[in-house]
Design brief:
- It is an enzyme of class 2 (transferase).
- By secondary structure, the chain is α/β, with parallel strands linked by helices.
- The chain has two domains: 126 residues, Quinolinate phosphoribosyl transferase, N-terminal domain (Aldehyde Oxidoreductase, domain 3, Alpha-Beta Complex); 149 residues, Alpha-Beta Barrel (TIM Barrel), CATH 3.20.20.
- 42% of the residues lie in helices and 18% in strands.
- A six-stranded parallel β-sheet has the order 6-11-10-9-8-7. A four-stranded antiparallel β-sheet has the order 3-5-1-12, with helices on one face.
- Strand 10, helix 10 and strand 11 form a beta-alpha-beta unit.
- Helix 4 packs across helix 5.
- The longest helix is centred in the middle third of the chain and has 32 residues.
Protein backbone atom coordinates (compact mmCIF):
# COMPACT_ATOMS: atom_id res chain seq x y z
CA UNK A 1 0.00 0.00 0.00
CA UNK A 2 1.09 3.59 -0.58
CA UNK A 3 2.50 5.57 2.33
CA UNK A 4 -0.20 7.75 3.94
CA UNK A 5 2.33 10.62 4.22
CA UNK A 6 3.24 10.74 0.52
CA UNK A 7 2.89 14.31 -0.77
CA UNK A 8 1.65 15.46 -4.14
CA UNK A 9 4.34 15.51 -6.82
CA UNK A 10 5.20 19.16 -7.58
CA UNK A 11 5.65 18.31 -11.27
CA UNK A 12 2.12 16.87 -11.35
CA UNK A 13 0.74 20.03 -9.75
CA UNK A 14 2.49 22.18 -12.36
CA UNK A 15 1.13 20.15 -15.29
CA UNK A 16 -2.40 19.90 -13.93
CA UNK A 17 -2.70 23.59 -13.12
CA UNK A 18 -1.48 24.49 -16.62
CA UNK A 19 -4.15 22.28 -18.21
CA UNK A 20 -6.85 23.69 -15.94
CA UNK A 21 -5.89 27.27 -16.76
CA UNK A 22 -5.89 26.50 -20.49
CA UNK A 23 -9.46 25.20 -20.09
CA UNK A 24 -10.52 28.42 -18.35
CA UNK A 25 -8.51 31.05 -20.23
CA UNK A 26 -7.85 29.48 -23.58
CA UNK A 27 -4.34 28.58 -24.75
CA UNK A 28 -1.57 30.30 -22.83
CA UNK A 29 -1.34 33.08 -21.93
CA UNK A 30 -5.12 33.24 -22.37
CA UNK A 31 -7.48 35.92 -21.16
CA UNK A 32 -10.31 36.67 -18.74
CA UNK A 33 -12.40 39.15 -20.67
CA UNK A 34 -14.46 40.22 -17.65
CA UNK A 35 -11.73 40.65 -15.05
CA UNK A 36 -9.28 42.30 -17.42
CA UNK A 37 -11.98 44.77 -18.49
CA UNK A 38 -13.21 45.75 -15.03
CA UNK A 39 -10.17 45.54 -12.75
CA UNK A 40 -7.13 47.79 -13.25
CA UNK A 41 -3.89 45.84 -13.62
CA UNK A 42 -2.34 47.82 -10.75
CA UNK A 43 -5.17 47.13 -8.27
CA UNK A 44 -3.93 45.20 -5.24
CA UNK A 45 -6.07 43.46 -2.64
CA UNK A 46 -6.63 40.42 -0.46
CA UNK A 47 -9.02 37.50 -0.62
CA UNK A 48 -9.97 34.93 2.00
CA UNK A 49 -10.29 31.27 1.09
CA UNK A 50 -13.21 30.23 3.29
CA UNK A 51 -14.97 26.95 4.14
CA UNK A 52 -18.71 27.14 3.58
CA UNK A 53 -19.25 23.69 5.07
CA UNK A 54 -17.79 21.59 7.87
CA UNK A 55 -15.34 19.01 6.57
CA UNK A 56 -11.74 18.02 6.02
CA UNK A 57 -9.65 20.17 3.70
CA UNK A 58 -7.21 18.95 1.07
CA UNK A 59 -5.63 20.42 -2.01
CA UNK A 60 -4.66 23.75 -0.46
CA UNK A 61 -1.09 22.94 -1.49
CA UNK A 62 -1.99 23.80 -5.09
CA UNK A 63 -2.73 27.47 -4.28
CA UNK A 64 0.80 28.86 -4.73
CA UNK A 65 1.15 27.13 -8.10
CA UNK A 66 -2.21 28.41 -9.33
CA UNK A 67 -1.55 32.05 -8.46
CA UNK A 68 2.04 31.75 -9.67
CA UNK A 69 1.03 30.51 -13.10
CA UNK A 70 -1.74 33.08 -13.43
CA UNK A 71 0.65 35.88 -12.49
CA UNK A 72 3.13 34.68 -15.11
CA UNK A 73 0.43 34.63 -17.80
CA UNK A 74 -0.72 38.15 -16.95
CA UNK A 75 2.77 39.55 -16.41
CA UNK A 76 1.88 40.66 -12.88
CA UNK A 77 3.37 40.12 -9.43
CA UNK A 78 2.78 36.78 -7.72
CA UNK A 79 0.33 37.04 -4.79
CA UNK A 80 1.39 35.77 -1.39
CA UNK A 81 -0.47 32.78 0.05
CA UNK A 82 -0.81 32.69 3.83
CA UNK A 83 -2.14 29.17 4.41
CA UNK A 84 -3.87 29.07 7.79
CA UNK A 85 -4.58 25.34 8.07
CA UNK A 86 -2.82 22.23 6.77
CA UNK A 87 -4.30 19.72 4.37
CA UNK A 88 -6.01 17.00 6.38
CA UNK A 89 -7.40 19.44 8.98
CA UNK A 90 -11.01 19.29 10.11
CA UNK A 91 -12.62 22.69 9.58
CA UNK A 92 -15.93 24.34 10.35
CA UNK A 93 -18.12 26.51 8.21
CA UNK A 94 -16.72 30.03 8.16
CA UNK A 95 -13.12 29.07 8.89
CA UNK A 96 -10.54 31.00 6.88
CA UNK A 97 -8.24 28.46 5.25
CA UNK A 98 -5.83 30.87 3.56
CA UNK A 99 -5.41 34.55 2.79
CA UNK A 100 -4.16 35.51 -0.68
CA UNK A 101 -2.73 39.00 -1.19
CA UNK A 102 -1.61 40.59 -4.46
CA UNK A 103 -2.87 41.90 -7.80
CA UNK A 104 -6.65 41.58 -7.87
CA UNK A 105 -6.63 40.47 -11.50
CA UNK A 106 -4.49 37.49 -10.52
CA UNK A 107 -6.72 36.62 -7.56
CA UNK A 108 -9.91 36.65 -9.63
CA UNK A 109 -8.47 34.78 -12.61
CA UNK A 110 -7.04 32.13 -10.27
CA UNK A 111 -10.26 31.77 -8.27
CA UNK A 112 -12.10 29.05 -10.17
CA UNK A 113 -9.12 26.81 -10.86
CA UNK A 114 -8.08 26.98 -7.20
CA UNK A 115 -11.61 26.26 -5.98
CA UNK A 116 -12.19 23.44 -8.47
CA UNK A 117 -9.11 21.57 -7.31
CA UNK A 118 -9.35 22.29 -3.59
CA UNK A 119 -13.11 21.73 -3.35
CA UNK A 120 -12.83 18.40 -5.17
CA UNK A 121 -9.94 17.22 -3.01
CA UNK A 122 -11.63 18.41 0.19
CA UNK A 123 -14.80 16.54 -0.72
CA UNK A 124 -12.85 13.31 -1.12
CA UNK A 125 -10.97 13.91 2.13
CA UNK A 126 -14.21 14.62 4.01
CA UNK A 127 -15.88 11.46 2.71
CA UNK A 128 -12.80 9.38 3.50
CA UNK A 129 -12.66 10.73 7.05
CA UNK A 130 -16.18 9.40 7.66
CA UNK A 131 -14.98 5.91 6.76
CA UNK A 132 -11.77 6.23 8.77
CA UNK A 133 -13.78 7.36 11.80
CA UNK A 134 -16.25 4.50 11.36
CA UNK A 135 -13.37 1.98 11.33
CA UNK A 136 -11.40 3.51 14.18
CA UNK A 137 -10.30 0.89 16.67
CA UNK A 138 -11.20 -2.09 14.46
CA UNK A 139 -7.74 -2.60 13.00
CA UNK A 140 -9.12 -2.37 9.46
CA UNK A 141 -8.19 0.41 7.04
CA UNK A 142 -10.22 1.99 4.25
CA UNK A 143 -8.71 1.81 0.76
CA UNK A 144 -9.44 3.69 -2.42
CA UNK A 145 -9.61 2.21 -5.94
CA UNK A 146 -8.80 3.21 -9.54
CA UNK A 147 -12.30 4.69 -9.95
CA UNK A 148 -10.94 8.20 -10.17
CA UNK A 149 -11.52 11.27 -12.34
CA UNK A 150 -9.26 11.04 -15.41
CA UNK A 151 -6.32 13.37 -14.95
CA UNK A 152 -6.99 13.89 -11.23
CA UNK A 153 -5.99 10.51 -9.81
CA UNK A 154 -2.93 11.89 -8.01
CA UNK A 155 -5.02 14.64 -6.37
CA UNK A 156 -7.87 12.34 -5.39
CA UNK A 157 -5.59 9.69 -3.93
CA UNK A 158 -3.70 12.43 -2.08
CA UNK A 159 -7.05 13.58 -0.69
CA UNK A 160 -7.81 10.04 0.48
CA UNK A 161 -4.57 10.11 2.46
CA UNK A 162 -5.50 13.51 3.89
CA UNK A 163 -8.80 12.03 5.05
CA UNK A 164 -7.17 9.15 6.91
CA UNK A 165 -7.48 6.52 4.19
CA UNK A 166 -4.87 4.41 2.44
CA UNK A 167 -4.10 4.15 -1.25
CA UNK A 168 -4.36 0.85 -3.02
CA UNK A 169 -2.57 0.50 -6.36
CA UNK A 170 -1.93 3.69 -8.26
CA UNK A 171 -2.57 2.09 -11.64
CA UNK A 172 -2.30 -1.04 -13.74
CA UNK A 173 1.50 -0.86 -13.62
CA UNK A 174 2.41 -1.24 -9.93
CA UNK A 175 0.27 -4.14 -8.64
CA UNK A 176 -1.14 -7.20 -10.43
CA UNK A 177 -4.80 -7.81 -9.65
CA UNK A 178 -6.03 -11.18 -10.92
CA UNK A 179 -9.79 -11.00 -11.49
CA UNK A 180 -12.32 -13.39 -12.99
CA UNK A 181 -11.62 -12.47 -16.60
CA UNK A 182 -7.89 -13.02 -16.12
CA UNK A 183 -8.59 -16.46 -14.65
CA UNK A 184 -10.80 -17.35 -17.61
CA UNK A 185 -8.11 -16.22 -20.06
CA UNK A 186 -5.28 -17.98 -18.22
CA UNK A 187 -7.23 -21.18 -17.53
CA UNK A 188 -6.99 -21.17 -13.73
CA UNK A 189 -6.01 -19.05 -10.74
CA UNK A 190 -2.71 -20.89 -10.43
CA UNK A 191 -1.92 -20.35 -14.12
CA UNK A 192 -2.72 -16.63 -13.87
CA UNK A 193 -0.50 -16.19 -10.80
CA UNK A 194 2.35 -18.08 -12.44
CA UNK A 195 2.05 -16.04 -15.61
CA UNK A 196 2.36 -12.78 -13.66
CA UNK A 197 5.30 -14.09 -11.64
CA UNK A 198 7.08 -15.11 -14.81
CA UNK A 199 6.49 -11.87 -16.72
CA UNK A 200 6.66 -9.35 -13.85
CA UNK A 201 8.45 -10.95 -10.89
CA UNK A 202 8.84 -7.61 -9.09
CA UNK A 203 5.15 -6.80 -8.55
CA UNK A 204 2.76 -7.70 -5.76
CA UNK A 205 -0.03 -10.06 -6.83
CA UNK A 206 -3.59 -9.73 -5.57
CA UNK A 207 -6.36 -12.20 -6.39
CA UNK A 208 -10.12 -11.66 -6.39
CA UNK A 209 -12.33 -14.37 -4.89
CA UNK A 210 -16.12 -14.59 -4.81
CA UNK A 211 -16.43 -17.88 -2.89
CA UNK A 212 -14.69 -19.85 -0.18
CA UNK A 213 -13.42 -22.37 -2.72
CA UNK A 214 -11.91 -19.64 -4.88
CA UNK A 215 -10.21 -18.07 -1.87
CA UNK A 216 -8.66 -21.35 -0.77
CA UNK A 217 -7.60 -22.12 -4.35
CA UNK A 218 -5.86 -18.76 -4.56
CA UNK A 219 -4.04 -19.23 -1.26
CA UNK A 220 -3.01 -22.73 -2.34
CA UNK A 221 -1.57 -21.23 -5.51
CA UNK A 222 0.56 -18.87 -3.47
CA UNK A 223 -1.58 -15.71 -3.28
CA UNK A 224 -0.79 -13.54 -0.29
CA UNK A 225 -3.45 -10.87 -0.83
CA UNK A 226 -7.11 -11.64 -1.53
CA UNK A 227 -9.99 -9.39 -2.56
CA UNK A 228 -13.14 -10.92 -1.10
CA UNK A 229 -15.77 -9.57 -3.45
CA UNK A 230 -19.44 -8.90 -2.69
CA UNK A 231 -19.66 -11.38 0.17
CA UNK A 232 -22.42 -11.16 2.78
CA UNK A 233 -21.02 -10.77 6.28
CA UNK A 234 -21.49 -14.42 7.41
CA UNK A 235 -19.68 -15.76 4.32
CA UNK A 236 -16.97 -13.14 4.68
CA UNK A 237 -16.35 -14.23 8.28
CA UNK A 238 -16.22 -17.88 7.20
CA UNK A 239 -13.70 -17.15 4.45
CA UNK A 240 -11.50 -15.04 6.73
CA UNK A 241 -11.39 -17.81 9.33
CA UNK A 242 -10.62 -20.49 6.73
CA UNK A 243 -7.85 -18.50 5.07
CA UNK A 244 -6.27 -17.53 8.39
CA UNK A 245 -6.22 -21.20 9.36
CA UNK A 246 -4.23 -22.01 6.23
CA UNK A 247 -1.90 -19.01 6.27
CA UNK A 248 -2.29 -16.15 8.77
CA UNK A 249 0.06 -13.98 6.72
CA UNK A 250 -2.42 -13.51 3.88
CA UNK A 251 -3.85 -9.99 3.71
CA UNK A 252 -7.60 -9.80 3.19
CA UNK A 253 -9.70 -7.06 1.67
CA UNK A 254 -13.47 -6.79 1.64
CA UNK A 255 -14.75 -5.13 -1.52
CA UNK A 256 -18.07 -4.52 -3.24
CA UNK A 257 -21.42 -3.40 -1.83
CA UNK A 258 -19.88 -1.69 1.21
CA UNK A 259 -21.72 1.09 3.02
CA UNK A 260 -20.85 3.20 6.05
CA UNK A 261 -23.53 1.56 8.17
CA UNK A 262 -21.89 -1.84 7.51
CA UNK A 263 -18.32 -0.70 8.03
CA UNK A 264 -17.74 -1.94 11.56
CA UNK A 265 -19.74 -5.11 10.92
CA UNK A 266 -17.51 -5.95 7.96
CA UNK A 267 -14.36 -5.04 9.87
CA UNK A 268 -15.41 -7.36 12.70
CA UNK A 269 -14.89 -10.34 10.38
CA UNK A 270 -11.14 -9.80 10.64
CA UNK A 271 -10.39 -8.35 7.22
CA UNK A 272 -7.44 -6.01 6.99
CA UNK A 273 -8.98 -3.58 4.51
CA UNK A 274 -12.26 -2.32 3.11
CA UNK A 275 -11.94 -0.89 -0.42
CA UNK A 276 -14.49 1.78 -1.31
CA UNK A 277 -14.70 3.07 -4.86
CA UNK A 278 -17.13 5.75 -3.74
CA UNK A 279 -14.35 7.65 -1.98
CA UNK A 280 -13.27 8.97 -5.36
CA UNK A 281 -16.13 8.36 -7.76
CA UNK A 282 -19.04 9.59 -5.64
CA UNK A 283 -17.77 12.18 -3.15
CA UNK A 284 -19.54 15.55 -3.38
CA UNK A 285 -17.29 18.57 -3.26
CA UNK A 286 -16.72 20.51 -0.05
CA UNK A 287 -18.05 24.00 -0.68
CA UNK A 288 -15.22 26.54 -0.51
CA UNK A 289 -15.24 30.19 -1.55
CA UNK A 290 -12.73 32.91 -2.32
CA UNK A 291 -14.06 36.15 -0.84
CA UNK A 292 -12.39 39.34 -2.06
CA UNK A 293 -11.99 41.97 0.63
CA UNK A 294 -13.26 45.47 -0.27
CA UNK A 295 -10.70 47.39 -2.28
CA UNK A 296 -9.26 50.55 -0.81
CA UNK A 297 -9.84 53.66 -2.94
CA UNK A 298 -6.71 54.76 -4.80
Amino acid sequence: MTSPTLALDPAWITRTVAVALDEDLGPAPGRDVTTQSTIPADAVGAADLVARQDGVVAGLVVAPEVVGQVAARLGLAVPSVDQRVADGTRVARGDVLAVLTGPVQVLLVAERTLLNLASRASGVATHTRRWADALEGTGALVLDTRKTTPGLRALEKYAVRCGGGTNKRMGLYDVAMVKDNHVVAAGSVAAAIEAVRTRFPDVTIQVEADTLDQALEAVGAGARFLLLDNMPTPLLAEVVAAVRAVDPRVELEATGNLTLDRAREVASTGVDYLSVGGLTHSSPILDLALDLEPLQPV
